[in-house]
Design brief:
TIM Barrel; 27% strand; 577 residues; hydrolase; Urease, subunit C, domain 1; Amidohydro-rel; 3 domains; eight-stranded mixed β-sheet; EC 3.5.4.2; alpha/beta; manganese; single chain; Metal-dep_hydrolase_composite
Length: 577
């Protein structure tokens, strides 16, 4: 937050030297959406002065350069950096992200995203909270503090996701009061239990009353139900999948986060709602993005490139990645390069392609950081050993099948005439999916899924939003069992099997993150991809798999109890009566 500091006044008035003077930059001003050739001066990591650029200076890092070399600025500094006409923009901000979905610890996540211009993220740690409760949230906060990246955490609103889900923890309103006392917590994370909001559930109401800033989660909610949801103080949504849905929510006063994750790719579809009049209510988020996508495609810089390709102007897109999220979350010390704000910014190597050259945090050019000691975090993993007998289904008739939608986490409820003896039915792309309880031995739900395109082999992971039980799918019972037991024996991970080939990427932090470096995780993901290609699966099958148990997203889901119909908000049998 912007805090009055009398020690900055003399530097701001030009009476004392600043620490650093950045000269000859083409600065983007998100207040006016214009580019200006300016110099700016930094003291103790804070911008204290901005002045018209007066031309080149000799020597980009020389302490001998002074105001006399740059007449008319009125400012002096201990040293100067000549930006040589580079375009300079405020540090980028992700409005909503689950760090755990990258498979990385916060420390490794920071190493990966800062070079892409990111200087702050709004993180909802509800993945680790479902596994380990407040202890898990505190682990994330502690690890974040070891990095220069600013992590602002939202208290997980729904742990477990619904009252019927069985997770490793239960965060009630009293637990959220404890979290709210932390300086690292700035609001309430996505309120996924929209039925609880709409029907006035007393525990949900208690949670809403604790926080001033509240993020939403209301997929396909519309009309009177959306009105009711918003009326309870919920201010945002990142689940819009159509222009019409986003526009209704925007018109009713919600902030809209245009999302582009590994599986949830909604940015291009809803970019058309953004204009110069409403861009202050729109920003970007990545929600769930694997480490390999962050490495190959980027972070919020990638969202800007996609937004521009979808028709949003470069200036508007930059504003949506900087000032808009800062103002939405009350982060008054960032989001723009102006007096009193942090000197968090990045320079662009290629403004046409929007490629980040350097990232500065509090005026310091980011260089890689290394962890001093190995990180560890213990969590419960009590899954029993799976056998083929656990996967048996019997019966015939109209069966409920989970239908995967490419590029979305919303599923379809497909009804097909099925004979259990004919499963897998590869001609119709129907195979088995299974969820096994990782916290207690015994529970195992079996269903059918369409759209993964696995023709041989199986995949399995202990990442299963949001309870993070073991989830698997495959073309044969034997291969499903093999994959599940690989994950179980690793006490969490991602596994793929196909014929004689198999590989497991251990996830030793709560069964959802790796203690390894981002390079090690990316290498493991490549090995998994090599095997999943042999199975014939869709691209990124693990991301689709990880969401089929999420009971707050339409339409049909599967848990350790069996199938769950989100519209009915109840468990349902495989075969319709």
């Amino acid at each position: 937050m912007m805090t009055p500091d009398v020690k900055l006044l003399k530097s701001a008035l030009g009476e004392e030297k600043a620490d650093i003077g950045f000269l000859n930059g083409i600065l983007f001003n998100p207040f006016t959406c214009e580019w200006l050739k300016l110099d700016f001066f930094v003291k103790s990591g804070i911008i204290v002065g901005i002045a018209d650029s007066e031309g080149d200076v000799s020597g980009s890092e020389s302490s001998e350069n002074s105001a006399e070399n740059n007449p008319g600025s009125g400012y002096r500094a201990e040293r100067y950096i000549d930006l040589k006409g580079a375009k300079v923009i405020p540090g980028l901000i992700d409005s909503h992200v689950h760090i755990e979905s990258s498979l990385l610890t916060p420390f490794e996540y920071a190493r990966l995203v800062i070079p892409h211009g990111t200087t702050a993220v709004i993180a909802d740690p509800h993945e680790i909270a479902n596994v380990a409760g407040i202890e898990g949230v505190n682990f994330m906060i502690r690890d974040s503090e070891k990095t220069p990246l600013s992590f602002y955490y939202m208290a997980p609103a729904c742990v477990p996701a619904t009252p019927m889900d069985r997770a490793g923890a239960d965060l009630d309103s009293e637990a959220l009061k404890e979290l709210a006392a932390s300086e690292s917590i700035i609001g309430l994370g996505e309120m996924m239990n929209f039925p609880g909001v709409i029907f006035g559930d007393s525990e949900v109401q208690k949670k809403l009353e604790i926080f001033d800033i509240i993020d939403g989660h209301s997929p396909q909610l519309s009309g009177k139900e959306l009105n009711a949801y918003i009326s309870q103080g919920i201010e945002s949504d990142h689940e819009c999948v159509s222009r019409e849905e986003a526009l209704e929510k925007l018109r009713k006063g919600m902030y809209i986060y245009l999302r582009e994750g590994s599986t949830e790719k909604n940015l291009s579809e809803i970019a058309g709602i953004v204009n110069c009049y409403n861009s202050h209510r729109c920003s970007f988020c990545t929600d769930d993005r694997h480490a390999d996508m962050l490495y190959n495609d980027g972070h919020i810089d990638d969202c800007i490139r996609k937004a521009v390709s979808a028709g949003i102007s470069t200036e508007t897109a930059i504003k949506m990645a900087t000032l808009s999220p800062a103002e939405r979350f009350g982060l008054k010390d960032r989001g723009a390069l102006s007096p009193g704000r942090r000197a968090d910014f990045c320079t662009l190597a290629d403004s046409e392609e929007f490629r980040v050259l350097d990232t500065y945090i509090r005026g310091v050019n980011f260089t890689d950081i290394q962890r001093d000691e190995k990180v560890s975090f213990n969590s419960v993993f009590n899954a029993g050993r799976l056998t083929e007998d656990d996967l048996k289904i019997s019966g015939s008739g109209n069966a409920r099948i989970i239908g995967i939608n490419q590029g979305q986490i919303i599923t379809d409820l497909i009804v097909e005439d099925i004979d259990s003896s004919g499963i897998p039915d590869l001609n119709r792309d129907i195979i088995k999916a299974v969820v096994c309880d990782r916290y207690r031995a015994g529970g195992c739900g079996v269903g059918l899924i369409n759209g993964l395109k696995i023709r041989e082999g199986a995949i399995c992971a202990s990442i299963s939003h949001d309870s993070h039980n073991i989830v698997a799918a495959g073309a044969s019972d034997a291969e499903i069992v093999r994959a599940v037991n690989l994950v179980r024996e690793s006490s969490g991970g991602m596994a793929a099997v196909c014929g004689d080939d198999s590989f497991v990427l251990p996830l030793d932090i709560g069964g959802i993150m790796s203690s390894g470096s981002y390079a090690e995780v990316i290498d493991g993901l490549k090995k998994l991809e090599e095997i999943t290609k042999k199975t014939g699966s869709v691209k990124d099958p693990f991301m689709y798999l990880s969401f089929i148990a999420l009971t707050v997203i339409p339409a049909l889901r599967i848990t350790e109890r069996g199938l769950f119909d989100v519209s009915e908000f109840s468990d349902v049998p495989l075969f319709k009566l």
